[in-house]
Amino acid sequence: MCTQILIVEDEPAVADAIAYTLRQEGYEVSTAEDGAAALARLAAAAPDLVILDILLPGCSGFDVCREIRRSSKVPVIMLTARGDEIDRIVGFELGADDYVTKPFSMRELVARVRACLRRAGSEEAATPQLLRSDDLELDLSRCRVTLRGQWIRLNRREFDILWFLMSRQGQVVTREEILDAVWGPERYCDPRNVDVHIRTLRQRIEENPGFPRRILTEYGVGYRFVG
Ligand code: CA
Prior knowledge:
The chain has 8 helices and 12 strands. By secondary structure, the chain is an alpha/beta fold. It starts with a strand and ends with a strand.
């Protein structure tokens, strides 16, 4: 039985990016674009977790959360554009389990989803925390990368990009997909930023960064990580 996640978000680009990432992680995903649709879905099929945006048409995510709590204990992660304390307190008082502030990286969201499901006791044992390719190891739970047992210092963006590439080993990923996953679907940044970070990553993990063997360039498309 697959873990089911309901995404409640009215902006298709954001909902699609989250859905895509969670499906890649092995979750079953459904979406709702407003509170009424969310409550209908919740009643029809009990999901294991709800990702709930605060800014929705009609009623706010707060109202939806309050309504969910009338009948369900399903874990709720709120998405908020406003990171201020009031929102957090109100969110938790309404019964939300966690929140993520936009813009967020997909790695961050996946980590929150896993933690939330683990606390709720519905996380499947199969979800990998450790990604390995040859002598390169990425430990998601400890945010650590090692090459031949040696710790590699990466900044957050570099770590997130490497996680995204390694979790899709062998697949071609576009710059847009990397931007969505790492900078967040609501980011404003140039796709060439990705190239700059890839260059740094190659210097850290490739024996010969000029002739990379792990992170390959797919000309005109993006990149592909090979094991
Ligand atoms: Ca929204």
